[in-house]
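Quick one - inputs below.
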Amino acid sequence: MMENEEKIVEKAQEGDKDALARLVNEYHDRIYHLGLSMLKQEQDAEDMLQETFLTLVEKVHQFKGNSSIYTWLYRIATNIALKKLKSKPRKYPHIPIDEPDFKKIHEKETKEEMEFDFEKVNNYKFRKTLNEVLDELPPKYKTVFILRDLHNLSTRETAKILNLTESNTKVRLFRARNYLKEKLEDLKTEELMV
Amino acid sequence: MSKEKKMYEKVCEYLGCDLDAEPCKELQEHLHKCPQCEVYIDEIKNTVKLYQKADECEETPDSVSKKLFATLNLDNPKQD
Ligand SMILES: [Zn+2]
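Output:
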């Protein structure tokens, strides 16, 4: 959050262009990131970014101040991204609800722990692969993962942005994390990981 | 509810929350004697960390910011 953010928002609501510019400057980076991880394509991310901030300029006077301006922006941006995803329907893998099979985890001999090489993220191709795996997730799971784990929003904020209950948000986050872990495990055998 | 089912729910609950929070006492006790669950939780944590690190590497290209400010008809404060 910016210093004096409430004041800046107030000024922006009165039509002060400098105040608006400061808000755009502060938050456009995060929103572009959100777009990239939600939509994968740079062009789509850029479109989402522009639409989000055009909405800010147009509707900032409607902002009531009962949430922070950034959750308000996230809500706008997320809705735009979800709409874009809906307009290009595709088949997503089925996410089983009783995964992980807890019995199976316990039956396994202590298996070797997966190794992670965090340096690999410096490699563009590797990041692309990660993003492709993330993109396999159905939007309702992917969105929660992105907001919670990549944008550090709280369970409560995420629930609010997506109109979910907090417990629903947790369940979706758990399933998303679990799916990604399993996929990375598969990748490892393809030697994409170390 | 069986003991196992209860523990399962604790693991799921934990893995849907902030991962740097301490697990509840019951879960902690279980993890002490259950390497399988411990490994499983660790792997999930590392998966999340990997994605976070990858995300940090992405930068917004200048051209994207420029175009945005131009579209909005606003001056970019960074360029003053
Ligand atoms: Zn266990």
